[in-house]
Amino acid sequence: MNLFKKNPIRFEGQKEIETQIKNQTDNVISRRFKILMGVIGAVGVVLLIRLFITQISQQEYYSTKLKQYNTSLFTADTFRGNIYDRNYKRLSYNKNINCATYYAVQSITQDDIKIIANFLVKNVNVDIKSVTERDKKDYLILKCKDTKDDLINDLITSEERSTYSSDEIYQLQLSRITSQMLKDNLSDDDMKYYMIYSKIQNCTSGSVVLLEGLTVKEASLIGENSDILRGVKVTNDWSRENTYGTEFKSVLGRVTSKKEGLPASTKDILLAQDYNNDSRVGISGLEMQYENILAGTPATYSLAYDSDGNPVVETVSSGTKGDNIRLTIDWDLQSAITDEIEKQMKAHTSSIYRYANNIYLVMIDPNTGAIYAMCGYQRDEKGDIYELAGGAVQNAFEIGSAFKGGTIYAGIKHGVINQYTEFDDTSSGFKIAGTPTKFSWDTGGLGRLNAAEALSQSSNIYMFYVATLLGGGTYEYGEPLSIRDSAFDQMRLDVGELGLGVKTGIDLPSEALGYRGRVTQRQAGNFLDFAIGQYDTYTPIQMAQYVSSIANGGKRVQPHLFMESFTEDDDGTKISLLQHQVKVLDDVSSYKLAFDTIHTGFRMGCVSGLASGVNGDYEAAGKTGTAQKVYEGTSDVWANRAFIGYAPYDNPEIAVACIAEALPDAGGGTCTTLSKYAFEKYFEKYG
């Protein structure tokens, strides 16, 4: 065995060995050794033949292995699914674009890179709008190095050069390049050239997109000059577009570009899910919420090299397009209501509207939580207005008397009042020792009222009496009033059962909770303010869930924008995949007396009360709200104006919640006007 380990297939010298043995041994031994060597020789020949056969038979195997070792696989995003409204009107989609993509060339020279960059700058539109100040500094450093200009080198002293590392010197150079230096030494053509140059230089493996949005002529020109544009190929790609521009974009959300790649906050998680660093991914709104549905399966490509080091790209798998999403939104309603809000905002131009920065309206099915419209406009510090539907989930306001349905609910739930309980709303108001007298909107008094009448006439005084009882207090005119601290927490729990002051669970990545009054402010007067909606703040989507809970008789239903996901076959037939299931988050419908009383009061309010301006053939029920606002440094009083309601009152199928911030008396009808318009548009379409 030792012989074979040293020289397993070498048989030269066997004859010489045999001769030496023959001279040293007798004939018997010699004959036996000959026999032995003959056997060994035969075995060696057999091994040699087998080895030869093995080499021939496995040549293809090892050639394939070698090719694999020299081939890399990479993936590319496929089309995302489209987003549609409930009637299949397309809202977000993928726009085809032609790109110039560079696939890393083995041992590419600086001269090759310069040829490519110069050609593209000269013959193709190179967009530099996205170039940042930092990019420009990098380009100037490259330019100075390329042209042997000492401008950048002179920024570093000899002492610094001998003290700091190359990375530290580079950072010093970046910090010392001024805007004026960039302006004086870097032209637009320079930026175009070095943008391409740096992308190619830094791409040592895989690929990088050099240019997007090529015209057909530009794409053809690149293809015709492939001999000098080493590694540059025209590829088909896509960009995410919204059909209606920026309208509803704050809800639809945004998808990153290939340049942005994965967001830093979720990069590690996404990489673990087989995303690439340059993968496009939803980072806000519905695009983020339903990334797992909208994102397709990436296509896979192989990248190998020919004998000249040029890349050879082949498709391994084409991937699959993401699934489509159908929303509950009715775009006809969404667009029409948004236009009306815009008109209102544009009409609020004088100085008395200087704090009127937000108007929102949400239209929702109170039985399923399906949102038909979520509209909003905001005014910035410069006075410019812009559409911001997402503000209905992010911004919170005091909602005034629209809150009073919650007070009546809490009062009946805890047994401190019933539908027949009456209190006097008089010109003497409600007076606590040491505090200003509180009144209803009519300081002359609204008379003796029961719970439903108090809602329809929006009596503050009635709610103050209910709050006093809820807080375990005893009211005497002009005397101190003591309220349990726990009453604040209990009230929040009660109205939270209906949707106020709690997250609604809407299917968007983030949702505001609203502001809660501080524990240190739990005085009796503040609890009275709480009972009329002037203490905590609530988002418009919370208002929508709250009015839905009242409309459907006590079920807090999760509001949602997602209706279903679907795909289409080759004939265009839509195939439903995943459908939304109604989710009830809380159910207090057992307090039927409370909801019957609130329904009666809300209907009376739309027939003959303060909300009568909203009524129509659709027979609405609802409640207005006014929350006074005093701004620091002014003596004037503004008010948030609100409306919540539903229709038809006896079998609600649609509900509306509206809030308009800090309006003067002249704008007091803003929400009732908008809500009436919304009801009319809905019933005009759906009957």
From TrEMBL:
It is a single-pass membrane protein. InterPro entries: Beta-lactam/transpept (IPR050515), Beta-lactam/transpept-like (IPR012338), PBP_dimer (IPR005311), PBP_dimer_sf (IPR036138), PCN-bd_Tpept (IPR001460). Residues 360-662 form the Penicillin-binding protein transpeptidase domain. Pfam families: PBP_dimer, Transpeptidase. Coiled coil: none annotated. The chain crosses the membrane at residues 35-53. Keywords: Cell membrane, Cell shape, Cell wall biogenesis/degradation, Membrane, Peptidoglycan synthesis, Transmembrane, Transmembrane helix. It is found in: Cell membrane; Membrane. Residues 80-314 form the Penicillin-binding protein dimerisation domain. It comes from the Bacteria. Signal peptide: none annotated. PANTHER family: PEPTIDOGLYCAN D,D-TRANSPEPTIDASE, PEPTIDOGLYCAN D,D-TRANSPEPTIDASE MRDA. Belongs to the transpeptidase family. This is Penicillin-binding protein 2. It comes from Massilimicrobiota timonensis.
